[in-house]
Write a structure and sequence with these properties.
15 helices; 11-stranded mixed sheet; 6-stranded antiparallel sheet; 660 residues; alpha+beta; flat; 4 domains; single chain; 27% strand
């Protein structure tokens, strides 16, 4: 039997096996799969025949364009028509490459078509003066259950269900389900018992979804999109969950729900505040006299005693409590002058350098955007103790950490924990591609992901202005890795350029290109020995660091004046409660968003049993925006990190890279 004939029969049998399941289409067009197919032939295995290559066949092209990107979900994983075994060479390699590309691409639609057949099993070509030539092809007969006279309509309806399900899974919060079930169980929701089963079913589904990421999460959505519960978000009870998830006041959310399902003359028989859990919490709050401590605001410099800071600038001293008697800045002799850049641990910096510092600036790298924080306090300065430590102060890190490249990669489902990570980020809807040529000559790119390219954005479908691509190595080979950036499709004339981030062994390097990307750019040559980077050669058109962005009034990739350096409030006044944080309060740094002032992990142990209520209280007692506040960069003792500071003072005028 000819080799291709055996291969086509294996593919035909594989398709018939997949049709026992629901079929979907991945986010590769049929034409893209066809191009991948032709490109997959090893050199010399697809020779020219007359005007085209031997395998460039219109029958096979019709099959691949309509079947080649089809998958089924089997045991929670994607399987394609190319996932076959025992195919003869070279078709075994072609099938393996196509199967990898198709099954590692997210689903984007249900599979429904109007045509019954694609391709033909074989045909004959008449040849003058000799016997006809038999040609074998890919072929398939589509079962009736996948046929439709209006396939676009059927796909659209199913895809809508999948999108509604995904929005619910991505946007709903678990506390909204807990609150709704509490309302139902206490008889405080009109016709609540009718909706309880659906609420519990979706809650279970959400809990399972939260354990997944990347491809597994995408598969989960499409696997469950056919269930009635998929459109839960569009039901009356789903709108209640949605409103509570978005932080709407409980009374308003329930009133909105009941307006949809209750008769116009319906009046609530019970007040929502009668929930037993709220009663119990309020008893404790009242017993401890904590009501004045619940109203929160941003802390100001004048709230903080000078005795509770590690360092303060001369300008800021006059705004602080308790004068300057508590400062020990002049009690220690000056550290020797440093004449070059130096790594230094935070404790050593505090002991030997800080006492002589008169002014300080910190370099706010773009990668530190998830380190922005604010100090908060009680509106009532005489409020009783609410937290585990003996002062009313707390802190809140910024929750919007989407701008750092690592967080972009993590959000997109990429591997951020690999031994070596090479990430490409850009700032518009262009389709840029990262290519990496390994020391053995293998080129990693969208057409050959090699198990290492795990994020590929703006290639088609949904576009993002914060895109990223990621190549990760769990065991990078020794030698020189060459990193290219290719402009595949230019769609914008603004916000051009890119940033490459190289992470290895706890070290992160960023290189930016601030011009229009034309064609392919050889950006970096990264040499690896024993899984560690030993050298990086940079294209002269790239510069170190990232592209400056604005956050809380601060421009990144620049030095910013520090007003004061302090421990987190749980380590003030010689207390040592919980993890230690170091806060660099920055001049003119203002968080314009409402900020949470109460976190469950801060609370007195007496309040542990009321965590649900305080979770709601935390959302309801957000600190309103204020012009005067203590905001800046924070670093935790539990996480390895570093920040570059520039200091001046007696015997000092240099830079230190502080290690945490």
């Amino acid at each position: 039997m000819p080799l291709f004939e055996k291969f086509s029969q294996l593919v035909h049998a594989r398709f018939n096996e997949l049709t026992k399941h629901e079929l979907f289409v991945v986010n590769h067009t049929g034409d893209q799969v066809w191009d991948l197919y032709l490109a997959a032939f090893p050199e010399g295995t697809n020779p020219l025949f007359r005007e085209r290559t031997e395998h460039d066949c219109s029958c096979c092209k019709q099959f691949i364009r309509n079947i080649g990107n089809v998958v089924a979900i089997v045991n929670g994983k994607l399987e394609s028509v190319w996932g076959i075994e025992d195919a003869p060479y070279p078709y075994n390699e072609i099938a393996r490459m196509l199967d990898y590309n198709v099954t590692n691409t997210p689903i984007n639609s249900l599979y429904r078509v109007s045509e019954r057949k694609f391709g033909v099993e074989y045909n004959f070509e008449a040849v003058a003066g000799s016997a006809p030539i038999k040609w074998n092809h890919f072929h398939a007969v589509v079962p009736k259950k996948f046929l439709s006279n209006t396939p676009a309509k059927h796909r659209g309806e199913f895809n809508t269900s999948a999108n509604v399900l995904k929005r619910g899974l991505d946007e709903f919060q678990m506390h909204a389900f807990e609150t709704t079930l509490d309302l139902i169980q206490n008889g405080n929701l009109y016709r609540g018992e009718e909706f309880e089963r659906a609420v519990r079913e979706f809650e279970v589904m959400l809990a399972r979804y939260r354990t997944l990421s990347g491809a597994a999460a995408n598969i989960f959505v499409w696997q469950h999109a056919a269930k009635p519960i998929a459109r839960f978000r569009n039901t009356a009870i789903g709108t209640l969950i949605d409103d509570l998830s978005e932080g709407m006041d409980l009374e308003r959310a329930v009133a909105s729900f009941e307006a949809k399902v209750a008769p116009t003359n319906y009046k609530r028989p019970k007040a929502l505040i009668t929930q037993s859990m709220v009663k119990d919490a309020m008893k404790t709050i009242s017993k401890l006299g904590l009501e004045p401590a619940l109203e929160r605001r941003f802390a100001r410099l004048s709230d903080v005693s000078v005795n509770n800071v590690l360092w303060v600038s001369n300008e800021a001293q006059t705004h602080m409590k308790d004068g300057i008697e508590g400062l020990l800045m002049d009690a220690v002799s000056a550290a020797p002058k440093k004449d070059r850049y130096e790594d230094i641990g935070i404790n050593t910096f505090m002991e030997t350098i800080l006492p002589s510092v008169k002014s300080m600036e910190v370099f706010v790298a773009s990668a530190l955007q998830n380190r922005f924080m604010s100090v908060t306090t009680a509106v009532n300065p005489d409020a009783p103790k609410l937290f585990k430590w003996d002062n009313p102060f707390a802190w809140s890190y910024d929750g919007n950490i989407t701008d750092s490249i690592k967080e972009r990669v993590k959000t997109a489902g990429g591997n951020t924990d690999a031994i070596l990570r090479m990430s490409l980020a850009w700032f518009n809807t262009d389709d840029l591609d990262i290519h990496v040529r390994e020391p053995n000559g293998n080129r990693i790119y969208y057409g050959n992901k090699s198990g290492k390219l795990d994020v590929d954005m703006n290639a088609g479908g949904k576009m993002s202005r914060t895109p990223v691509e990621n190549v990760s190595f769990d065991s990078p080979m020794d030698g020189e890795h060459i990193v290219y950036v290719n402009q595949y499709s230019r769609r914008n004339s603004t916000d051009e350029g890119f940033v490459l981030e190289i992470a290895n062994g706890g070290n992160v390097n960023q290189y930016s290109y601030k011009e229009q990307v034309r064609g392919a750019i050889e950006a970096l040559k990264v040499t690896v020995r024993g899984s560690m980077i030993v050298d990086i050669k940079v294209n002269p058109k790239l510069t170190g660091g990232g592209i400056s962005q604005e956050k809380w009034g601060i421009h990144t990739e620049k030095f910013v004046k520090v007003d004061t350096l302090m421990f987190s409030p749980n380590h003030w006044d010689d207390q040592t409660i919980g993890n230690k944080h170091w806060f660099f309060i920055l001049a003119d740094c203002v968080n314009a968003q409402s900020t949470r002032g109460i976190y469950n992990e801060f609370l007195l142990s007496d309040l542990d049993k009321h965590r649900k209520v305080f979770e709601v209280l935390g959302n309801k007692t957000m600190c309103p925006p204020a012009d005067e506040q203590l905001s800046g960069l924070g670093f935790s003792s539990t996480q390895s990190d570093s920040v570059l500071v520039r200091v001046s003072g007696e015997g000092l005028n240099t830079q230190y890279n502080i290690l945490f």
